[in-house]
């Protein structure tokens, strides 16, 4: 059963198309990596899946009991967050908003969920501490815990390791792999790092001048056609 | 000394105590959205709106309304909604539009007052609208009541939407992705800001409103590190500064608005120092 189906998507801003005629499916338990050069529209695609941007054409549909608002999202870092006074606990808890409806305050269930996800990512000690005083790796884990509060089924990660040092990057990849394998959470991740993508993901979506969608093995075989992005796409 | 005692005796009159109460309520609600406005880069909207409110006040004045608050409130709320719309559509153009509206309202407001006012003390009237009454005691009973009701409404809305406002302020995209109608909450924020501005105008006048909104939040952010503690601290701080300012102005006879803002500034200096010393202690 496909959790997510994108058919004939056309993406862009103010009527100007960036990508056209994009179709793919994501099944339960998949680990999909989206790769492609800078500015090729990876983040735009992710925002469209989340319903933040509307596509110029085509459609995004969710299935298998997944609602669009029940997708966990780890965005690319924004500026506002850098000087925002917020504790780790407050941020993780805010991931429970989609269960809240019009209820103004968090109940026991939400607090328990936030606690559980903080424990899962080793954040329990940091609970009352200030978000902006943490290292990049810890901040990403906080945002990942928040995303986990929002979903049981699917995570969308927009460059989760950009700006992290190699050791923390490896840890992050391990955490994501575990979420995929142990908890059965479907992963869609944007990455610049094609080697990591080929190591961890089982499917690859390459967007840009040429589009590829298929298994990681097939992508390796056709490497010649796409790996030009490998050297060029890294920041 | 006898003079001082005489002035403190004012506090016995219920009417003076109502004025103090209103001052406290206004200070409380103006500080609540400070953090959100600063962090969402909305503070410019607050500034622009206060000028719009000045223009609205001038219009109300020449219409010779006995109670100008409904008119001013309506115009300011509508402007808030419009400004938010244009501001979202195009960032830079939005800024320019805002500057035009705010400076334009000031100019037109003064012009209208000059042409139509029959008041013997025109510059005094203008000064009062810009910098607040010389004394909060000049508020009449209806104004006091209206201020109290609006303040309580603002506080209730803030408490009910506290968690959603946090989510939308911290990360609008994530909030929208999880189904929060961010547009609706931005609208609520804008309307509440408009109400706060109209309220605060009674206390400090239109030019000084931003100070009342932003100083307590900035002070609290120097020392406290979680959204809840910053919010509580800025509310408490704002109330204390307003009380100190009002009492001070009654005693020394200084204008109430600028006295409150002066106390706010002193508190900001103190908190900046405290923040430096504690070196970002984690609270
Ligand atoms: N809000 C926006 N309005 C207009 N154009 C945008 C906007 N966001 C991104 N773009 C443009 O869309 C293209 C794709 O951007 P993006 O999806 O962020 O790429 P990627 O994440 O693959 O680097 C870029 O050329 C970018 O300049
Ligand atoms: Mg991107």
- Helix % of chain B is over 70%
Question: Could you state the order of secondary-structure elements of chain A as H and E?
Answer: EEEHEEHHHHEHEHEEHHH
Bound molecules: adenosine-5'-diphosphate, magnesium ion
Structural class of chain B: mainly alpha
Report the span from N to C terminus of chain B.
43 Å
Query: How would a textbook summarize the main sheet of chain B?
Result: none
Radius of gyration of chain B: 19 Å
Shape of chain A: globular
Identify the strand order in the major beta sheet of chain A: 5-6-7-3-8-9
The count of strands of chain B amounts to 0
Low-confidence stretches of chain B: none
Output the radius of gyration of chain A: 18 Å
N-end to C-end Cα span of chain A:
36 Å
Structural class of chain A: alpha/beta
Largest interface: A-B, 36 and 33 residues
Mean pLDDT metric of chain B: 83
What is the mean pLDDT of chain A? 89
What does this structure look like?
The complex is a heterodimer of chains A (235) and B (283). By secondary structure, chain A is an alpha/beta fold. Chain A has helices at residues 42-50, 88-94, 97-100, 108-120, 136-150, 166-181, 194-200, 216-221, 223-226, 228-232, and strands at 2-13, 16-27, 31-35, 57-62, 71-74, 154-158, 186-190, 203-206, 212-215. In chain A, β6, α6 (166-181) and β7 form a beta-alpha-beta unit. In chain A, α2 (88-94) runs parallel beside α5 and α4 crosses α5 (136-150). In chain B, 82% of the residues lie in helices and 0% in strands. Chain B has helices spanning 2-9, 14-32, 34-39, 43-62, 69-89, 91-116, 122-131, 141-160, 162-170, 172-177, 182-204, 209-223, 227-252, 256-278. The chains are: A alpha/beta (235), B mainly alpha (283). Chain A binds chain B through residues 47, 50-52, 68-69, 71, 73, 75, 78, 80-81, 83-87, 89-91, 94-95, 97-98, 100, 104-106, 128-130, 132-133, 146-147, 150, and chain B through 35, 39-41, 159-164, 166-167, 169-171, 173-180, 221, 224-230, 280, 282. The complex binds adenosine-5'-diphosphate (ADP) and magnesium ion. Adenosine-5'-diphosphate binds next to α1 of chain A.
